[in-house]
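Box 3.1 — From sequence to structure: MarR family transcriptional regulator
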Amino acid sequence: MDHLPSWLLTQTAAYAHRLVGERFAEIGARGYHYRLLSTLIDDGPASQADLGRRTAIHFSDVVAALNELAADGYVERRPDPDDKRRNTVTVTPRGQERAVELAAKGEEIQDELLAPLSAADRKELVRLLTLLRRGGAPG
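Predicted structure (token representation):
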């Protein structure tokens, strides 16, 4: 099976997922924390449902991760002024600082994951994976 790209991608993804989980746990975080904080910083305040769609995180996992982030003072939930049934999530100044820390850890994780590859190989890998993710559609 080691000659099948689908098998190699699956095994590599499992290793990457495990590595991300272990390394973020070293600083009391999860990969979901990084994805959610980064999305909020990049795109601005959002509902929990929107965050789930934007990050491809299941809604129940979004809620659990936001509960953790809120408990640590990294995000705030406020009723949406246009729809009181929804909460709008925003990043706090403390959350902005945490996002910087998580981004640095994320870079370390990428370096560890891609250690066997040269800089040129890393760029080529990203190019090829991006092409596959798009289903071959030009970018």
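Summary of the box: The two ends are 30 Å apart (CA to CA).
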